[in-house]
């Protein structure tokens, strides 16, 4: 035994080592498998489950219907046209019934079977979950489809909304328009829930109320097989429509204002409730038809929209020289400063000379009070007032009544603050010092003074409502107004003067017994080398005003009393023919 044992021992050791090695290998392999299973099933199981779920489902977004825009009485100003589109479920194209189904669809859509095959091939490249066979089906096609719906198994009808402005260009600058989301802005807008080629408000109320109007997207969820072929619909979540927005606009008054402004090539009209600031009509000319943006403007339409007349520009919100309408501001400055009393007189002369320069006037009747100076629009009276007050007092009052700042209207991105030029402005932009000439011409609304028609409407509201600065608004809602603390004597003088403008002055065309007592002021602004601008601003009835009207005629030539005031007459007649004013 001792002889053979050493020979046998190495063999037993080798077997033992092999067993240990094999056991170790099995343990390691099982450990690796178990570790991998733990990695896949426990640590990352939810992630992989979600990935697999995603690979067998597809989401198709559904666009929301945009909210409507309504006038103050509920009349529709902007809505949506529902277009019916026909879709094919992809798996039915590969079925044995496709040839007969294709022939029936070809008859319904009045196209060739080959054309339907071509459309399916094109749709498969971009929308593999359902093929759009036809858009904007006719009423006859829609009725035929639903009458014979069993003959069209594998197809479905769906709707698409297109923005519609039923009155065409009427109120275009108030309503605005919508356009497609462009590729360059998509990276930003997609974080806010927008889709590529989604529709978004670009101007007017469509832009200002975008969040309310747009609604939220829905979706359809499909199950697909390994080849990406749709097997069934898993979920159909409808889109949430946007909210309707009621505006302060009065449709009938808006129509009259639009028609009145067609007498000139360019201009603006705004009508406002002097107590609340609610805008009853807003017109800018030239205008445009927002329906051209429902799809995309043609080249001819695009050239028109970008022409020299600037149809897209809302002139109600742009600054222009106010001319003699600014004399109201000069009167407020004179009486509120304490340098003039309501009964004081100032000289109206044929000409006024100062520091070697002379300025003419169309009237010369001696010393007159402020109401008569306003009625006859005597320039020389206000030249003298301006010099006595100084530009600081004039411009302080201009800012006090809201000139030089935005009004607070909802479409603020389109609104200019206007311009109240001062020595600093002149030095910066013209490199020249302020002179007496600047003060003299500013007192009558010329020179470096620009006012928007909307700002001017606020000024007339101040006189009409007893000294309150209102916030103009296009959406029915409570808004705040600010008391300016004007002296009763100042308001009385202004009301007396503006009424005399109609009874004995430059706006006598409005002294009509068929109208309530109208008060207002005309203006004719020089605009060399072009023709003059014509203005009228006023309110009625004089004893209890309920409507302020501003008319601006750009480069119309003529005078405010002969060009602009007759347009205001049309608006007052329309407004008061259905409202008692006695």
UniProtKB/TrEMBL annotation:
**Localization of this protein:** Cell membrane; Membrane
Q: Where is the Penicillin-binding protein transpeptidase domain?
A: 267-572
Gene Ontology annotations of biological process type: antibiotic catabolic process; cell wall organization; proteolysis; regulation of cell shape; response to antibiotic
Instruction: List the SUPFAM superfamilies hit by this protein, alphabetically.
Output: beta-lactamase/transpeptidase-like, Penicillin binding protein dimerisation domain
| Chief location of this protein within or outside the cell | membrane
Which EC number(s) does the record attach to this protein? 3.5.2.6
Mind telling me which Pfam families this protein's record contains? Answer: PBP_dimer, Transpeptidase
Question: Top-level EC class, please?
Answer: hydrolase
- This protein's GO CC annotations: plasma membrane
Q: Which UniProt keywords apply?
A: Antibiotic resistance, Cell inner membrane, Cell membrane, Cell shape, Cell wall biogenesis/degradation, Hydrolase, Membrane, Peptidoglycan synthesis, Plastid, Protease, Signal, Transmembrane, Transmembrane helix
Q: Where are the transmembrane segments?
A: 20-39
Topology with respect to the bilayer: Single-pass membrane protein
Q: Which InterPro entries match?
A: Beta-lactam/transpept, Beta-lactam/transpept-like, Beta-lactam_class-D_AS, PBP_dimer, PBP_dimer_sf, PCN-bd_Tpept, Penicillin-binding_protein_2
Give residue ranges for domain Penicillin-binding protein dimerisation: 63-233
Q: Name one GO molecular function term.
A: penicillin binding
Q: Which family does it belong to?
A: Belongs to the class-D beta-lactamase family.
Which PANTHER family does the entry link to? Answer: PEPTIDOGLYCAN D,D-TRANSPEPTIDASE (PTHR30627), PEPTIDOGLYCAN D,D-TRANSPEPTIDASE MRDA (PTHR30627:SF2)
The protein here is known as beta-lactamase
UniProt source species:
Paulinella chromatophora
């Amino acid at each position: 035994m001792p002889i053979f044992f050493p020979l046998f021992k190495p063999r037993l050791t080798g077997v033992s080592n092999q067993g240990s090695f094999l056991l170790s290998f099995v343990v390691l392999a099982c450990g690796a498998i178990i570790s991998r299973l733990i990695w896949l099933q426990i640590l990352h199981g939810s992630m992989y489950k979600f990935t697999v779920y995603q690979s067998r489902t597809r989401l198709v977004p559904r666009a929301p219907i945009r909210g409507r825009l309504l006038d103050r009485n509920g009349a529709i100003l902007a809505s949506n046209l529902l277009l019916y589109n026909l879709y094919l479920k992809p798996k039915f194209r590969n079925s044995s019934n496709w040839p007969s189904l294709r022939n029936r669809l070809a008859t319904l859509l009045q196209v060739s079977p080959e054309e339907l095959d071509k459309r399916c091939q094109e749709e498969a490249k971009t929308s593999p979950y359902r093929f759009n066979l036809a858009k904007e089906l006719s009423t006859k096609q829609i009725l035929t489809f639903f009458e014979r719906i069993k003959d069209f198994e594998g197809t479905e009808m769906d709707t698409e909304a297109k923005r519609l402005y039923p009155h065409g260009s009427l109120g275009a600058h108030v309503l605005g328009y919508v356009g497609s989301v462009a590729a360059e802005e998509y990276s930003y807008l997609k974080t806010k829930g927008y889709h590529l080629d989604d529709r978004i408000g670009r101007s007017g109320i469509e832009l200002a109320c975008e969040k309310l109007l747009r609604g939220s997207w829905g979706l359809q969820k499909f199950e697909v097989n390994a080849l990406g072929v749709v097997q069934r619909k898993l979920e159909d979540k409808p889109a949430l429509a946007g909210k309707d927005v009621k505006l302060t606009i009065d449709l009938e008054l808006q129509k009259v204002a639009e028609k009145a402004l067609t007498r000139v090539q360019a201009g603006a009209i705004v009508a406002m409730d002097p107590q609340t600031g609610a805008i009853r009509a807003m017109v800018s000319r030239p205008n445009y038809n927002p329906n051209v943006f429902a799809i995309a403007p043609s080249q001819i339409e695009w050239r028109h929209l970008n022409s020299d007349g600037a149809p897209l520009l809302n002139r109600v919100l742009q600054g222009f020289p106010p001319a003699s309408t600014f004399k109201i501001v000069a009167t407020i400055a004179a009486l509120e400063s304490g340098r003039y009393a309501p009964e004081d007189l100032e000289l109206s002369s044929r000409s006024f000379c100062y520091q070697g320069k002379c300025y003419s006037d169309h009237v010369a009747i001696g010393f007159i009070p402020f109401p008569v100076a306003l009625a006859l629009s005597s320039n020389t009276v206000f030249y003298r007032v301006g010099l006595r007050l100084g530009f600081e007092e004039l411009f302080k009052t201009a800012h006090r009544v809201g000139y030089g700042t935005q009004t607070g209207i909802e479409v603020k991105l389109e609104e200019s603050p206007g311009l109240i030029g001062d020595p600093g402005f002149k030095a910066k932009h013209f490199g020249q010092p302020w002179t007496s000439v600047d003060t003299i011409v500013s007192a009558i609304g010329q020179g470096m003074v620009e006012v928007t028609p909307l700002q001017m409407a606020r000024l007339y509201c101040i006189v009409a409502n007893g000294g309150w600065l209102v916030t103009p608004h296009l959406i029915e809602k409570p808004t705040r107004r600010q008391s300016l603390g004007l002296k009763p004597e100042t308001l009385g003088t202004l009301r007396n003067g503006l009424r005399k403008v109609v009874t004995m002055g430059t706006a006598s065309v409005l002294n009509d017994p068929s109208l309530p007592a109208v008060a207002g002021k005309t203006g004719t602004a020089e605009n060399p080398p072009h023709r003059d601008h014509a203005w009228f601003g006023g309110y009625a009835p004089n004893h209890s005003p309920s409507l302020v009207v501003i008319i601006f005629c750009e480069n119309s030539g003529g005078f405010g009393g002969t060009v602009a005031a007759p347009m205001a007459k049309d608006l007052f007649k329309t407004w008061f023919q259905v409202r008692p004013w006695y």
